[in-house]
From TrEMBL:
Residues 26-106 form the HTH arsR-type domain. This is ArsR family transcriptional regulator. Keywords: DNA-binding, Transcription, Transcription regulation. GO terms for molecular function: DNA binding; DNA-binding transcription factor activity. Residues 1-20 are annotated as: Disordered. It comes from Streptomyces globisporus C-1027. PANTHER family: ARSENICAL RESISTANCE OPERON REPRESSOR ARSR-RELATED (PTHR43132).
């Protein structure tokens, strides 16, 4: 199972206490564009914005962001935020805090368009993770010593069965969830912490 929140950004979640969206084949096809994924992630992470502001942040034209925002709106992933607009200014916000989907189901879907769409989405998620990590490595010297000491970049190799691999991922997701609402947003010295999880088999030879 993959959860993409703002982050994008996969981790498991039962979806019972948060505004999570279960992605179906139709939504997946609408989401299968790199800019749409970036737009959705940005709205989830930084809150409502106009097409122009999103274009400035992402280095895209307002025409492109406006078009893809409308496509996301048709898929039910973003919506108007009219209370924020002034005059003809149109603001957009994400409808959900994150998305949940079972990537294995889409990889074996009978529709080749769906199989292609999940490939686009997963590769964009992987690209985003790499970009976020590289950004941290390039800016970590600007952070206080306490944050530099608290960061982590590790990898592990463990021999498992498919069932145990799923169990491992579920337990790691549960650990992350246990910290989700511990620190209030206005806590001095706090920051949003990104945790990426990738679990996959490797060839024995």
């Amino acid at each position: 199972m993959t959860e993409n929140e703002d982050a994008s950004r996969p981790y498991r979640h039962d979806g019972t206490d948060r505004r999570m969206h279960n992605v179906d084949a139709r939504t997946l096809r609408s989401l299968a564009h790199p800019l749409r994924i970036r737009l959705l992630n940005t709205l989830r992470e930084f809150g409502p914005a106009t097409a122009s502001k999103l274009g400035e942040r992402l280095g895209e034209s307002s025409g492109a962001t406006s078009y893809h925002l409308r496509q996301l709106a048709e898929a039910g992933l973003v919506e108007d935020a009219p209370e924020l607009g002034k005059g003809r200014e149109r603001w957009w916000r994400a409808v959900h805090e994150g998305s949940i989907f079972e990537s294995a189901d889409f990889l074996t879907h009978t529709d080749p368009e769906v199989r292609g769409a999940i490939g686009v989405v997963l590769h964009e998620v992987a690209t985003t993770h790499a970009q976020e990590l590289n950004t941290w490595l390039g800016t970590m010297s600007e952070w206080p010593q306490e944050w530099r000491q608290s960061s982590d970049m590790s990898d592990f190799k463990v021999r498992l069965t498919p069932e145990l691999a799923r169990e491992l991922s579920a337990k790691l997701h549960a650990v992350v969830e246990s910290y989700r609402d511990v620190v209030p947003e206005d806590t001095e010295g706090s920051a949003v912490v990104r945790t990426h999880l990738h679990t996959f088999p490797r060839p024995s030879e």
